[in-house]
Amino acid sequence: MAKPKKKNARSRVAGAKAATKKKGSGRRTAARQNRSKAPASPPPVAHVVHGPSLLNDFDIHLFREGSYFRMYETFGAHHRTIDAVEGVQFCVWAPNAREVAVIGDFNGWDPASNPLAGRWDGSGIWEGFVSGVGDGTLYKYRIVTESGAVLEKSDPFAYYWETSPKTASAIWNIDYQWHDQDWMSSRAARNSLEGPMSVYEVHLGSWQRVPEEGNRSLSYREMAEKLGNYVEEMGFTHVEFLPVMEHPFFGSWGYQTVGYFAPTSRYGTPQDFMYLVDSLHQRGIGVILDWVPSHFPSDAHGLAEFDGTHLYEHADPRQGFHPEWKTYVFNYGRHEVRSFLISSALFWLDKYHIDGLRVDAVASMLYLDYARKDGEWIPNTFGGRENMEAVGFLRRLNQTVYAEYPATQTIAEESTAWPMVSRPVYAGGLGFGLKWNMGWMHDTLEYFAREPIHRKYHHNQLTFSMMYAFTENFALPLSHDEVVYGKRSLLGRMPGDDWQKRANLRLLLGYLFMHPGKKLLFMGGEFGQFNEWNHDTSLDWHLLHDNRHGGIRAWMMDVCRFYRAEPALYERDFSDQGFRWIDCNDIENSILSFYRHGTSEKDTCIVACNFTPVPREKYRIGVPQRGSWKEVLNSDAAYYGGSGMGNRGEVVSRPVGHHGHFDSIAVVLPPLSIVVFKYRNP
Fold first, then answer.
1. What is the DSSP code (8-state) at residue 307?
2. Which of 180, 360, 443, 482 is catalytic?
3. Distance, CA of 486 to CA of 493 (rounded, Å)
């Protein structure tokens, strides 16, 4: 779908088309900006900046060595007062430009009114002070390249943008009075790897819409109330938002970012988004953002060829252009680019109190041959395919984040077997706190899609994850990527009749929460959304009027609450001391049973899963302690839409040896169910 051309009376770029699309639905700029044919002339002599600079010499030194990580405090547009005159200081990096001016509402978009001055130090930074400019004023940078071409660029450091398809930046003060002190003082424990983490993944534009008002999306402030109430009721510990950073094409879901320091204006102002985060924090809910340093779109107003040269991206398309997504790849070896990207990461943690960053498409950064054929990539200096510059960038990113904001987490979406992604840099790792377990996700969903009669032939798809479960700090993702592009919804993937589909989904969700690793579930999965996710429509909330879907949601609520209350399910997620098989070899019956252990001896749960529609009565499981075992969860309870089979609340062990223990319990395993038991202290 092509982005429509737009004209406006303020001399903005005509005919710019957005290149946007999340992986697989791409769209590129089809027309470049009109370039003037002005005769070439030598670069102007650097001249004095209009007023004192916000940057000092040490800032410039750090910027040029790739260590200036607070660029958002000095670059961009900042209110200041000089000699009792109020105005805005502009600062932009365009080292290969012949001229740079700021144009906007305040000067009638006249390039002659407010030229910026190039610094004398060779940094390529242009600055200038404009008096009498207030919040909401629209502006762009007019850049004359070395060849004489004229570009109009949005500000890479703008705090606020016009709403797409408009592309101007806006002057904005992002001061805000926060009320989340209790959360901030306690979030180190709430974000701890030894604590519970159940993440509800949300796309802001399609979680819930208002059909009475043209099917519009909810605003940030509306989401604060509605989403806050819902997540608090469900019992998730965190919300993860698909990228909120400004992006031109809504259909990219935010993954084609142009504004690395601005929440999208589609849903409100920066303060409105701060209010959303603040509100969630006050409810005890953490906030994680998707962040995309892996690629950026070729939109004419964005970072691409920013000063007429390949400034942020590699010049060679074998390094700087992504063939799969039709986007540009950052030049991670350029010091100034590293400063830019790490500044963006810190900005969200600093100004927006964000609790974690999920870094998108890490594998595409790590491998020089990612999505490329032979001859389409350049080996590293050692002849290999590893992108050593990206490795260095990621390590520096994680070191900096954890040094500056130790109570937060970074999470890698890394889909290969790259070693030590979530291990410290000092030990040779990349330094992430968590890594998405894509292998577990693929194997598990493939297994669940099979008819139960065939599952015994693929039992290893369930057990294989435990062969590597503790090599990384894994998060288990059932994410947005698994319910789009014809993959169907989680419920739609399940085999069998209507009842079996829902039983399978309850089993899957329970298995997710009982398996070692932190949890992530995309919106809609918690109540059995049947349709595949569509970013242009709301979730199918009307399904909750159907008790069958309400039962799935009730199951998810009880699982979330039990998970948070039971240390055995999270304290030792990343240690083999927290998990032990009871029986992983009952292939004929397609049954798994295992222990989850906390740090205290009393914190032990027994989990048993029946992956067939055949109920198993008097199924014997060895237990380490003699006495009564309480049935604390049963996905087949009638309350959840199941058949109502179960163990009447508890079972008592008998001195019958089994599974290496002197005692055992004989339990009922309902069809397509997960049942959890906990020892009842005498």
1. T
2. 360
3. 10
Q: Are 209 and 216 in contact (CB under 8 A)?
A: yes
pTM: 0.91
* Residue 330, beta-bridge partner list: 313
- 533, 503 Cβ separation under 8 angstroms: no
Burial class (CB in 10 A: 0-12, 13-18, 19+), 45: exposed
- The helix/strand/coil state of 277 is helix
Helical (H) or strand (E) element with 80: strand 76-82
650-652, strands of its sheet edge to edge: 579-586, 591-597, 604-610, 673-679, 628-634, 650-652
CA distance 516 to 388: 32
d(CA 356, CA 44): 45
Q: Which amino acid would we find at residue 583?
A: D
What residues are paired with 101 via a beta bridge?
A: 115, 142
Helices 438-448 and 498-514 meet at what angle, rounded to 10?
160
Per DSSP (E only), the strands in 242-383 are 245-246, 259-263, 286-291, 321-322, 327-328, 356-359
Distance CA 111, CA 107 (A): 8
DSSP 183-242: HHHHHHHHT-TTS--EEEEE-TTTSSEEGGGTTEEPPHHHHHHHHHHHHHHHT-SEEEES
Count of C-beta atoms within a 10 Å radius of residue 542: 9
- From the number of C-beta atoms within 10 Å of its C-beta (0-12, 13-18, 19+), residue 75 rates as buried
Task: Round to whole Å and give the CA distance between 460 and 287.
Answer: 35
Identity of the residue numbered 194:
E
The tens digit of pLDDT for each residue in 240-249 reads: 999 999 999 9
User: Residue 21: how many CB atoms within 10 A of its CB?
Assistant: 21
Q: Provide the pLDDT for residue 51.
A: 63
Record the tokens describing residue 143, joined without a space.
Answer: 């850049």
- Specify the pLDDT at position 542: 96
Helix (H) or strand (E) holding 92: strand 85-93
Instruction: Report the pLDDT value the prediction gives residue 387, as an integer from 0 to 100.
Output: 97
Q: Is the dihedral of CA 419, 421, 424, 428 positive or negative?
A: positive
Backbone φ and ψ of 628, nearest 5°? -95, 135
Is residue 153 a contact partner of residue 143, using CB atoms and an 8 Å limit? yes
From the candidates 246, 413, 603, 636, which is the catalytic residue?
A: 413
* Gap between the Cα atoms of 378 and 600, Å rounded: 53
Domains of the chain listed by start with CATH number:
57-170 (2.60.40.10), 576-679 (2.60.40.1180)
Average model confidence (pLDDT) across the chain: 92
Q: Please, which pLDDT band fits residue 23 given cuts at 50, 70 and 90?
A: very low
State residue 105 phi and psi, 5-degree precision. -55, -35
> Is 413 among the catalytic positions?
yes
194: annotated active-site residue = no
C-alpha–C-alpha distance, residues 59 and 54, integer Å:
9
CB 635 within 8 A of CB 673: yes
- Which pair of structure tokens corresponds to residue 577? 């001391």
423: pLDDT strictly greater than 90: yes
Q: State which H helix or E strand residue 395 sits in.
A: helix 388-404
